[in-house]
Write a structure and sequence with these properties.
The complex is a heterotrimer of chains A (327), B (358) and C (432). Chain A has 327 residues and is mainly α. In chain A, 71% of the residues lie in helices and 0% in strands. Helix content of chain C is 44%, strand content 12%. The chains are: A mainly alpha (327), B mainly alpha (358), C alpha/beta (432). Chain B: Its main location: membrane.
């Protein structure tokens, strides 16, 4: 009985972690669906967004270090602080600007290239943004405060304690992440179903050429999709940044999103969510039951093995579009 | 004017299908080999060996291996780091278990062991394709590194999990361990690189290579015309992993001398090798060398210029270095998506006409 | 590979060669820093402290014994291959000591420095058994090391529990790498000796910001104490998760690499009461800071503009620089010349005697334990103390005196490890 309670606690927490993974995976799916680009830079985008958010919030001078190295002037801060909401808005604008730049400088020139070339280009982009983020805002650890609560939820603990005699642990941040993810997905779905731009986006995802022939501007759609992906990256950056501080390692969460993508399919938004949940629960349960027998720290690879097992039976992922091959 | 095929007659099919059909190319190749084997070993310094040439040669071997898999057989892999770890740990176990056998043989055996492991992790490629496969190979990457970190047998139960290469010699020359001279290190790696490049070149233009390319261009079509996808894909995984395993074994035993799975053979290594292949040019032997040279030399060069010559603070230089490498990758892809090898081919075409435009 | 590529290569080669700085006439003490990559937040303060101390010596005293100290910095990104590149490029400048601030790089370089005859100094990190000077002639890790740290943590806990840990449970949460695995053997031995139960919980370096399963396990099993051997983002993430599951901070104790400001600030007030070991003080309440201010900071010479002055890792960099400087001084004394070589500095390291009086002279009263080395003992006393984080004052306060490690347990372990190394590599023992 006790074992079962522990296991269910692990499952619940796994689900919550899965939501956090899915937040990162969402950005990948959006871009892949609309442009067929596997955007490796998504993790770095999240880092860059979080760094920019903190920088704006605390009134940091961008490139302060570079300026002082070149001119000898020591500027650290503008001396103001910006309220969180406004800062988030401004950061979202920065991400839109970034999307425009990426489209104009990179994607535009690579239209029609093979997927692996585009993938490679996003890796170049990731390098560039990583260097740029550090150069702009410095490489030290920063804590991110936008007013999200964190820590054990007492309501859940006392409730489960009175029900089962064992208080479950649920992080309040995770609850918030779940709510935010739900809102995000709902609004993304609503956007793509009910707005003109959304429909254009789906048309592009369906067939580039057909979309072009009915007068949809591919370039506009790409900018839009990258902006949305930038915004999703910002949300993911906020959640993960609140969790463990903002620094280089934040960009590595992309690696946790890959098995999620594989499992859910690169082209499906619900797939990203379901994939996230399965990976989250799977890796936590495996670590709980099998981990102690084999020495632990299994989460890193087990997620991939789990996704691999699913793929062997469904090579396009759970919700991916069926791969039809013709000779 | 100088670089042309006029007057370079071939009288047999054998001559016609040789690797370097142009005389000038051929002589250039022999000259490069002569310089590499007969001149450089006498002038090489520790710095040049350890910072530039040895890593260049080792990564070139790894890039060759991945190029066989990705460039010739069309199977994208992100497991190179893990396979290099297999090569490194295999050579370590072999070298410590059978000290009387030459380490050069151990390196080759380590490649063989890696080939077996590679085939095992290559099996899903029969079902899974494209990026799904790329991500699936990450399972190999993370699992293998975890395994070498977790099972003490692999690192002979040392307290920290580090493996350190024992000192070994070949024909009286010390080739592993701290006492190794720069030229010995260089020559061992050069020998392997040249040998394996020759093997790769001849494999890829033979029957095996053509089945790989058929699978790459369209596997269903290839199957219909009688290419067995199982053998084609598995041989590609085996040969590729062999190369990568040898590279891993050399990286550990000749270059670094000590290694730890998660640090030396992490996911970054997989990406690095893939970059080399793509930047250099998919499906090109020369491209593997060019890509490796580019990505090994560029950071060292940038660092020396930014920190050494311009006197910038090291952290600024490191950040700028990342930005420049990233921007250059994007730039190269835009200018020539088929990599440095294609750039080289285009240059050669132009050279044939030079100085007359038509 | 033809003419053009050869020419291009030659051009690159000349550029690279030209770019490599010329040899120096002064004493060269390179700074292996990492201000980028996953561990940048930890590496930057350390590098700053290291730089500033030598800047102080150069500015105030004109160097050591009239010899200017040159501190070329080389960025390693905590990456072993870059570390090797740094070593090879700096070797041309004839450094008198090598101090790579990374256990991975240290392991890589131990055979190389022994062959090249350059002393290596790895205070509080690197290969623990290198303290056995009979085997590791060129490596020094005074004042303390990972195994000492494990033993001191247990000693401290023994004191807390009135000398009895029987039946207690202690969890070791460790970075799943060479560094994190170091203390396991020692703790296993100690658990046999003192009768506590040890649970080992690894955290993978690649995914160390997501430690939910580890902390759910800790929450279920409620160990009496958690010993933390973390590095980089693993530390703030662990402390944050500990706060999340309401694990009492007072019951956690970190190794010195898990006890800096960067580790606790992310968790804010929740990190109050977290304990960590330290082999040196932190903060600016030492007389040396008057000199630093006058000769370095006020002249605008602080490394990187001085954003980390007085932090724990800054102080550690300073400590490392201080011991190195004392070794050079000793070497000058022993060799009777000011322009000492690497081999002479090695002798200086082996004859170190930094007494408490000497520390006071240096303006570092009660900053760190006294250090005395010998031919057999390259590890010093191994002493460290426990400090506690005060989140409201944002300061680390020492709460104990310096502890001696349990040498009865550690010495045999070290001898076994170093003798095994000697056997593997055919090293004859020195100091007979």
């Amino acid at each position: 009985m006790e074992q079962l309670l522990y296991a269910s606690e692990v499952v619940v927490n796994g689900l919550m972690t899965g939501v956090m993974y899915a937040l990162v995976a969402l950005g990948f799916v959006l871009i892949y669906k609309a442009s067929g680009v596997f955007n490796y830079a998504q993790g770095v985008l999240a880092l860059f967004a979080a760094l920019t958010l903190i920088g704006i919030q605390q009134g940091q001078v961008p490139f302060a270090h570079l300026i002082s190295a070149v001119t000898g002037m020591h500027l650290d801060s503008f001396g103001w602080t910006v309220p969180s909401l406004l800062a988030i808005l401004l950061t979202a604008l920065v991400m839109v600007g970034l999307a425009i730049l990426i489209e104009a400088l990179v994607l535009k020139h690579l239209v029609g290239q093979e997927p692996i070339i585009l993938f490679m280009a996003t890796i170049g982009l990731a390098y560039f943004l990583e260097g740029l983020g550090d150069l702009m805002w410095g490489a030290s650890v920063k804590s991110l405060e936008v007013g999200l609560p964190q820590g054990l939820s007492e309501t859940v603990e006392t409730m489960t304690d009175s029900l089962f005699g064992y208080g479950f642990f649920i992080d309040r941040l995770d609850i918030w992440a779940t709510i935010i993810a739900a809102v995000l997905v709902a609004s993304l779905v609503a956007f793509s179903q009910y707005t003109k731009q959304g429909r254009a986006m789906r048309a592009v995802a369906d067939d580039h050429q057909a979309a072009l022939s009915v007068g949809i501007s591919l370039r506009f759609i790409w900018v839009m999709v990258w902006s949305i992906a930038g915004f999703v990256a910002l949300v993911a950056g906020i959640m993960w940044g609140t969790k463990s501080g903002v620094q280089f390692s934040l960009s590595l969460i992309a690696l946790k999103a890959l098995p999620v993508l594989m499992l859910g399919g690169f082209t499906s938004i619900p797939g990203a969510i379901v994939g996230g949940l399965i990976i989250g629960v799977g890796e936590k349960l495996f670590e709980f039951y099998i981990g102690p027998m084999v020495g632990g720290a299994t989460e890193n690879w087990f997620a991939y093995v789990l996704a691999l097992l699913f793929l062997v039976f469904r090579p396009q992922g759970l919700f991916g579009e069926r791969i039809i091959e013709r000779v | 004017m100088l670089y042309r095929e006029a007057g370079d007659f071939k009288t047999s099919y054998r001559d016609d299908s040789q690797t370097f059909p142009l005389k000038l190319d051929r002589w250039g190749y022999y000259a490069a080999l002569a310089v590499a084997f007969l001149v450089i070993p006498f002038v090489i310094t520790d710095y040049w060996a350890n910072s530039v040439l040895v890593p260049f040669l080792i990564y070139a071997i790894a890039a060759l291996g991945l190029n066989i898999l990705t460039g010739y057989a069309g199977q994208v892999s992100l497991g190179s780091g893990g396979f290099m770890a297999v090569g490194a740990y295999a050579s370590y176990k072999l070298a410590t278990a059978f000290p009387e056998i030459s380490i050069l043989i151990h390196v080759l055996l380590a490649g063989g062991i890696t080939a077996v492991v590679g085939v095992l992790f290559g099996l899903p490629s029969l079902r899974i394709k494209g990026f799904y496969l790329a991500v699936a190979t990450l399972a190999a990457q993370f699992f293998l590194v975890w395994l070498f970190n977790k099972v003490p047998w692999f690192y002979n139960y040392s307290a920290s999990g580090q493996i350190t290469v024992p000192e070994r010699s070949f024909l009286g020359w010390i080739i592993t361990g701290p006492q190794t001279s720069a030229s010995a290190k260089y020559l061992v790696c050069l020998g392997f690189a040249v040998l394996l490049a020759w093997v790769a070149r001849n494999l890829t233009r033979g029957t095996v290579g053509r089945t790989w390319m058929a699978i790459r261009d369209m596997d269903i079509a290839a199957e219909i015309i009688g290419v067995n996808p199982l053998t084609a894909k598995m041989t590609a995984f085996a040969v590729s992993s062999f190369f990568i395993g040898v590279a891993g074994a050399l990286l550990f035993s000749v270059y670094l001398g000590a290694a730890e799975a998660s640090e030396t053979f992490g996911i970054n290594k997989s990406f690095l090798v893939l970059f080399m292949v793509i930047i250099g040019g998919l499906g090109s032997i020369f491209g593997s060398f060019a890509g490796a040279a580019f990505l090994v030399l560029l950071p060292v060069f940038l660092k020396n210029v930014l920190v050494g010559s311009l006197g910038w603070p090291t952290d600024l230089a490191a950040h700028l270095e990342l930005m420049i490498v990233g921007a250059l990758i994007v730039f190269f892809l835009i200018v020539e998506p088929h990599g440095l090898a294609q750039l080289w081919r285009v240059t050669k075409e132009k050279l044939r006409l030079w100085p007359f435009p038509h | 590979m033809k003419k053009r590529s050869v020419r291009l290569f030659a051009a690159l080669a000349t550029a690279t060669a030209l770019a490599a700085p010329a040899a120096w006439a002064d004493l060269v003490v390179p700074n292996f820093s990492y201000r980028t990559g996953p561990y940048a937040a930890n590496g930057a303060p350390y590098a700053d402290g290291f730089n500033d101390y030598f800047t102080l010596l150069n500015e105030r005293d004109g160097g050591i014994g009239g010899q200017k100290i040159v501190v070329p910095e080389c960025e390693t990104s905590y990456n072993t291959e870059k570390g090797v590149e740094c070593y090879e490029s700096l070797k041309g400048q004839n450094p008198v000591v090598i101090a790579p601030v990374s256990t991975g790089i240290a392991y890589q370089l131990i055979p190389k420095v022994s062959a090249d005859k350059i002393p290596m100094y790895t205070p509080g990190f690197g290969r623990t058994s290198a303290q056995d000077g009979r085997v590791f002639e060129w490596v020094f890790n005074a004042p303390t090391n990972y195994w000492d740290g494990a033993s001191i943590a247990i000693k401290y806990l023994l004191d807390e529990h009135g000398g009895d840990l029987n039946g207690k449970t202690i969890a070791l949460l460790y970075h799943n790498s060479a560094f994190g695995k170091e203390p396991i053997r020692t703790l296993q031995e100690l658990s046999k000796k003192h009768g506590f139960k040890l649970t080992e919980i690894p955290v993978d370096p690649g995914s160390s910001q997501e430690q939910k399963s580890q902390w759910l396990q800790i929450r279920r099993e409620k160990p009496d104490h958690v010993i933390l051997y973390g590095w980089g983002v693993m530390n703030p993430a662990a402390i944050q998760e500990a706060a999340n599951v309401r694990y009492p901070m007072e019951q956690m104790i970190g190794i010195w690499w898990s006890g800096a400001e960067v580790d606790v600030t992310a968790a804010g007030a929740a990190a109050n009461g977290y304990k960590a070991m330290a082999f040196h003080g932190a903060g600016q309440n030492y007389p040396i800071y008057d000199d630093l201010k006058a000769h370095v900071f006020d002249k605008g010479l602080a490394s990187q503009g001085g954003p980390h002055i007085g932090t724990v890792l800054y102080s550690r960099g300073m400590h490392s620089a201080m011991v190195t400087a004392e070794a050079i001084r000793k070497a000058q004394e022993l060799a009777g010349t000011d322009a000492v070589t690497a081999a002479q500095v090695r002798d200086g390291f082996e004859a170190l005697d930094i007494s408490e009086e000497r520390l006071a002279e240096l303006g570092l009263t009660d900053f760190s334990p006294a250090i005395k080395t010998s031919c057999e003992d390259h590890g010093g006393s191994g002493m460290a103390r426990v400090q506690q984080w005060d989140a409201s004052a944002k300061a680390w306060n020492p709460i104990t005196d310096f502890y001696e490690p349990d040498n009865e347990v550690i010495d045999p372990l070290i001898r076994a490890d170093s003798e095994a190394f000697a056997k593997e590599n055919n090293i004859t023992l020195r100091c007979n």
